[in-house]
Records
---
Amino acid sequence: MNNQAEQRLNALHLNNEGVQYFESSQFEEAGHCFGEALSQLTQASHCDAPHTSQDTLPESDTYFYWSDNPTKPLHLSPSTCSTNIFLCQRALYIESGDDSCMITAPPSPSSLLDESAAVVYNLGLSFHMMGLDYITNTNKQKLLRKAASFYNIAVNIRKQQQMGKKEKPSSIDLAILNNMGQIYHEAFDYSTSRKCFEMLSHNLMWFTRNGQLECIAQSDRKGFMLNVMMKFPDIAAAA
């Protein structure tokens, strides 16, 4: 097993261990696993892959699937949030379609980008959940800022991965934009929040046009729709 493939394998195992913690509402433990997974993927991306002909190199298929909601999902209300906004509370499992292939073949740059975006999203989500679960406002805002920063990194990774390709958003894009919109709304940054939900709406339209909307869990689909239809305070009028 080459070093790059081994680090990638460790990263996927750590990510999926973190998702199991997440599903059990152990968000701090989940965040630790996601952070370790990201470290392994970062190291793998900087490794020199063996010089193997692309014609003979087997492809390692990576599959992503959504976790269940946590055993103790957060119900956003005026006591925990400035308004009742839907939050996507699902993390992403990452699996390889062929373990033997994943172990022996160096991962493609595209695979590493996809996997890194998922792990970074998971890490942001763990901070997001911890932040909303906090009573102390200081800790809450610190954790939510961390969550927003990781969501932004995930957005940039997805942009890099999509560069030069025909638009094809994924459900992870919906979750990231939705949750970023929630954080900025919580911080009363309505302008940025509105932009997030406008981009979410644009992506939902792509899913609708391409007959992919039914692929999204019904509860999540309903939550996304409610968020994009939300009315924002008229800041200019208030001023």
Note: The beta strands are 62-66, 92-96.
---
Amino acid sequence: SQHTRRQTYSTMSIQDGTRRRSVRLAHRHSSRTEASQQQPESASSGVVLVTVGSTSFDSLMNIVDSKRFADEMEQLGVSRLVVQYGRGEHTEFPALRDRSFEVESYAFKPSLGEDMRRARLVISHAGAGTVLEALGLGRALFVVVNRNLMHDHQSELADALAAAHHCCATDCERLLSDLHSHFADAALEHSSSSSSSRASLPLLLRGQPFAPWPAADPHLFAGLLDEQMGFRDE
């Protein structure tokens, strides 16, 4: 017997050069169980991952290596900060020393998978692969757009995902204020329904500030192809 799959469709309008194109997204309704399976391995995880992938993004690293950023990490209750700085020239982070959280920094690893699975918060460049991996793992995601790139093309993906409330699209100038406001708002939203023990947790651990990314459904492409070809389920 065939199983019925409930799907919803939404259209995102994305600027592509001088044209606008519409992207039709299909989402399967996710259960609470599926959403809970995307949480970090440890419910008490206070790990933050900052990643630039295979690129260089020294303007972001300059923000990370600042007293304001370190102060914000402490206010959020971060226990460990992992910084992947890629090909950039900013490879030392003296402003992060002698803080209440541990710090690990490196240029590259064979895979970011383990660090991303341990993290509760990911601060990422706008590379599609990194962004989708973080969303698929259910991580709170701040996508930092590099405004120095030609045509500012990275903002297309970031803005579309932010419009659907799956992440925060930001830039180097707004990152710190966006971090604080999103987690403060999430903590306030959960405070009325949270237990007293949860209310005492650091801001980072009190609530997910974004809508969960829909669970992957391998049947969606086949369904969309059938629809375009005019086939119908019997």
Note: The radius of gyration is 19 Å.
---
Amino acid sequence: KDLFCNLLLYNNTIMMNAFIRITALLLASHNAANGFHIVLAGGTGKVGRELSSKLVEDGHDVTILCRNAFLAAAPSKVSSDFGWLGQSFLEKYPGIKLRDWDGGDLLDIVGQDWVGWQDDTLSKADCVVNLCGGFTQQREMATERIVRESLRCNPTALQITVAPKDEELRLISNVAVEPKMKRLKLCEDMVSQNCVNYETMRLQANRLEEECDNIKEVIYARLS
């Protein structure tokens, strides 16, 4: 009896995962003609700037989740503690929208309009790219937040998590490298073990344009 129940549960899980994948492909095919909606979490850094502009130039809509949309859109950079894209950049690429979010840590919120970011952004997303940087527990919390809310709002969306390669991490950080590597792996596992439609990517920091093209190619290949 236990074996039969386990087999039944296993088969139901396989069928559900297959259904989610097929649904994702059908939705992606429908949206491809009108452009995709892509969400970039932590997209106010160098990678986010480069990737978002490339995606918008290709005719897609991009929403960037940031801790403070007002500061990110300011004419000049106000604080080094928060990401910044700038007013002129956003005027050049009107297809890029900013949205406050909690980033997994309510104590770190400065933006005033973060409530409801999940339903506003994730529910419409064809793809969610996690570009959240840093190697502290904040990275884990942000990843957990994205995964949990995506599963609630939009389980078929493609989830892409981006991190530096291990050898790159050793070059850019000579303190507590092993714990940082474990944290990156933990975030990747969080995505791979909970999402059926996902990619985990490791990039080289000194090849910004090339690596952003790689992310873009993965998005198009998986959604086409």
Note: The mean pLDDT is 85.
---
Amino acid sequence: MSNEGGFDFGGVKRNAMLEGKGMQVPRAWKTGTTIAGIVFKDGVVLGADTRSTSGSTVADKNCEKIHFIADNIRCCGAGTAADTENVTDMVSSALQLHRYATGRPSRVITSLTMLKQHLFKYQGHVSAALVLGGVDMNGPHLFTVYPHGSTDSLPFATMGSGSLNAMAVFEAGFKDDMSREEAMALVARAIRSGIYNDLGSGSNVDLCIITKDKTDYLRNYEFLQQKTYVRQFPVVYPPGTVTVIKERVVKLSLADVTVTTVEPGATEMDTS
């Protein structure tokens, strides 16, 4: 390592040498998700698919991607599952302590600042792409947080590998001052677009509706992977289904049993 200022690219030559000798360079696994959010007249609607992948393998068909931050704030996570869960849990815990200390409800901008500062500190190595939404004293808010720490404030937002499909639906169907039902239908349609057109997204649709009065988390709002055939259990086979090749009947009889009653105070039986 040189003591001079500036960057040191010695690791690049080392990696090239190791790769030239046949070493397999580790590759980042592709992650897949479709998450989206929209601001409507009275609050925010967040949506997510439920597929968790491990490379090309579906690891979980019904995972949760809408994470709890506070009673009035939720956060959708795309990227590495461990990173999204732990980052949102850390911010949720810090906001809980902040509410204890101040006695005031959490603000959406506070959670946004904590998320972006943490992600920026790790320069994108924490793989968490987030859609943050909530309602506070200043009204409804919707933000996107990129893994490097940059943020956007938008009336509708998408993230993940299926984000382009969901964004196409939003750009075609969004309008100002949407009702709750219209916003829910549009977000569900956007998530379905990602599920049907992106291999990394799939399974079901989760929705979360946040207003100033309450938060409704609708788990499996749309169940898209329902099986068309339901197996009967236990399976009942009619007589004659299996051919009997050989039959043997054994009659069992009860053996005679002698019961001996020992009176109290009698000498014990010698078992030696």
Note: The helical segments are 10-20, 81-102, 108-121, 163-173, 180-197.
